[in-house]
Amino acid sequence: MNPASSPTGWYFSQFDAFEKTLNGESKSELHSLRREAMDKFQSNGFPTTRNEEWKFTNVGAIAKAEFKPVLGLTSSGVAQSNVRQFWLDTRHRLVFINGHFSPELSTVGTLPKGAVCGSLASSLRTTDPHAHTFLARQVKVDETPFVSLNTAFLQDGAFVYIPDGIVLDDSIQLLFIASEKQPFLASPRNLVIIGKRSRVSIVESYVSLTDQTYLTNAVTEIVAGDESIVEHDKLQNESLRAFHVAMIHAKLGAKAQFTSNSIAVGGSIVRNNVTVVLDAERSECTLNGLSLSTGSQVIDNHTTIDHAKPNCSSHELYKAIIDGKSRGVFNGKIFVRADAQKTDAKQTNKTLLLSDEATVDTKPQLEIFADDVKCTHGATVGQLDAEQVFYLRSRGIDETAARDILTFAFASDVVRRVHVDPLRDQLETLIHERLDQGRLVESL
Amino acid sequence: MMLEIKNLHASVNGTEILKGINLKINAGEVHAIMGPNGSGKSTLAGVLAGRDAYEVTQGEVTYEGKNLLDLAPEERAREGVFLAFQYPVEIPGVNNTYFLKAALNAIRKHKGLEELDAVDFLQIVKEKMKLMEIDESLLNRSVNEGFSGGEKKRNEIFHMAVLQPRLAILDETDSGLDIDALRVVADGVNKLRRKENAILVVTHYQRLLNYIVPDFVHVLMDGRIVKSGGKELALQLEERGYDWVKDEVERQPVQA
Fold it and tell me: How far is B255 from chain A (nearest CA, A)?
């Protein structure tokens, strides 16, 4: 259908080659899912700016590149000593190289009986009923073309299964490292199932050990059981030559409390989708986001909160700090279904433009079909407050430091909402590094 | 002489506000600038502190032998100029104490003094807090965020107490204060009076000057100092308002 030279044609021929390596597995249920996804991807193609969902973010540069899917673990000389810098202080750490689980680099502490924290590929191989039951059930195969592409090359990622009534004190870090020397495609697929009344925090970290151009195309599916408390944090700090597209999709049970903190600082073109379905009464979600961009980066955050049932609440705060010629995009959808009476939804989006050439497109999108609801949204776009800058300077602080202090304060409003202490420390250091006079601000 | 202002003219958006200010301040003196609304009092304070909304079109300001107008706001602060704001701005996310420590250390560094560590700094802060009757909770909050009007003004003088400026400019520090808060603020200022320091009090009303007794009072009208005198001039203004000064000025030929 597509000539091999078209973007989808390249991936189709790669899929073809992949299929030939599978032998018997090509008859499996998993592989028919992949094939279905490849079909969808081929017929839909990469999105263009004519598509409303991609209006502000041109992924032409991604479509044009021919990224080679990484089909297995090639350790590529990545040693523990290279990886340590990205560690969070926790007992549970799963490390993935170009999307594939590395047992050598990973470590998992003692887990309660029945809990699983490991590679999705091995769970699928061992016919773990939970992995098979939940995989690709939250996100539709054609939810976005990138989800289709991820699913077509779905092999590995993290599988976390926590039975009912478990409180995990340590957070689970999922560390995704890009390291290939050729232009490549990493397609990590994560599945997180949290039982009733359980309490877990999970941190996804995306980093690079290569200067190569590549695409991380990740999908994370989360099911938060009734009355569970789940925090999902993500730090995307890939190289400025990397492309990063990701979908996080969470479905909440009754009275579940779900928090997503999404921090993006790396990547040349970045698109994050966070979708939460409040699928049972009295569930609650909090979505926070912070992006820092400079140079010619484009960081696009799309969030969807689907109030499907009554008496649920959602709180959303997305902030962007945009410098240089970089661009930010925020699109926040809130659906309130006809059935979802007594919904309480609040969305706030704030953008700080640090240069004259920095731009942002921000779009709240509320679609409300119930009548007894409370929904508010607000967006502000601005520069640093001149009066605040003058106030700090009039006390002896130089202009650069004054601007850094105020920029840090803007960011810390989101950072302090991260409850995983080591991640919060890591984020603060990272933001300091990004600011010209990190030392002075650090002394604050 | 600490400060000498000569024929200072300044504009905002092309409109001239200060039309030739002349003023000399020596160390150890307290000067009050009084005047009706719109006379240019806050503009003068702002120009001295380096607020960039104002354009100086003529004249000069010499501070400690230096051309003050050449210095950036932070350089003026490090040289010992302090402005207590009429409307202190709220800065969410910036801790009041940590900010003040950074400010004090920037000033100390400029003076060639060693930067203070957290322990030494805290000691100074505790001492000055008592002086200003400041509640400890204000220290751990963001700069001015959610402070009442009185707390904001008190916080300004608290900053002044910690930073120990040579020349303090108090811009309408009395506005919005009830009588008790006014007394606390004035007491704080008085405790900071030294023979090597000077204070310039900018105010509309005389009542602050009951507590901070000035050596000199100047009346600012339409961008010029039209009358100067001792502390009794403030009382006269309180009693008779500003109109008689205006009449007096209009009867005199304008000085070249």
Answer: 35
